[in-house]
Amino acid sequence: MSSADQDKKVRIDKWLWAARFFKTRAVASQAVVGGHVHLNGERVKPARSIKPGDELRITRGNDEFVVIVVGLHDRRGPASLARTLYDETESSLEARQLASEQRRLMAASRPVDPVRRPGKRDRRLIRKFIRNDDD
User: Fold this and answer.
1) DSSP, residue by residue, 24-72
2) Rounded to an integer, what distance in angstroms lies between the CA atom of residue 50 and that of residue 24?
3) Is residue 55 part of a domain?
4) What total number of domains does the chain contain?
5) What is the pLDDT of residues 114-125, one digit of tens each?
6) Dihedral, CA atoms, 58, 61, 64, 66, nearest 10 degrees?
7) Is residue 112 part of a domain?
8) Which of 12, 62, 122, 132 is the 20 to 30 Å CA partner of 71?
9) Cα(103)–Cα(26) distance, rounded to whole angstroms?
10) In a domain, 129, yes or no
11) 118 within a domain of the structure (yes/no)
């Protein structure tokens, strides 16, 4: 990491967008304001500058990422470049994989929703069942 990277300041919302944690900068800014992003354990505002070595805790949907900032960039580039801007901690990666596996198993045990809506004949049978008719 060069000294130019250390001197450069990047807003946290821009960095989150450039690192591809959020699709737009506006969504990244809303996440920061909403308390879904913590910098070194503290809640921050979108204009807060970050530096290499900072720890970010990012909650996005069901997933929580704990990453260490490695590089700074304020422009969105290819995913391969975005991945070089941070290192995810081992515990964060393991926790996300465990949660993903649990969600997959829960989805597999859930009953399958009907493929189609009931047709005319199905509705008649349902009404007959509900009324307990023996027509």
Assistant:
1) SHHHHHHHHHTT-EEETTEE--TT-EE-TT-EEEEEETTEEEEEEE---
2) 19
3) yes
4) 1
5) 678 889 999 999
6) -30
7) no
8) 62
9) 29
10) no
11) no
Q: Per residue in 71-118, pLDDT tens?
A: 999 899 999 999 999 999 999 999 999 999 999 888 877 777 667 888
Structure-token pair, residue 23: 């699709």
Asked if residues 17 and 25 have their Cβ atoms less than 8 Å apart, the reply is: yes
Main-chain dihedrals φ then ψ at residue 64, nearest 5 degrees: -125, 125
- Surface-to-core class of residue 113, CB atoms within 10 Å of its CB (0-12 exposed, 13-18 middle, 19+ buried): exposed
Torsion sign across C-alpha atoms 16, 32, 41, 94 = negative
Task: Evaluate whether 82 touches 123 at the Cβ level (below 8 Å).
Answer: no
> Amino acid identity, residue 83?
R
Q: What is the CATH number of the domain that holds 27?
A: 3.10.290.10
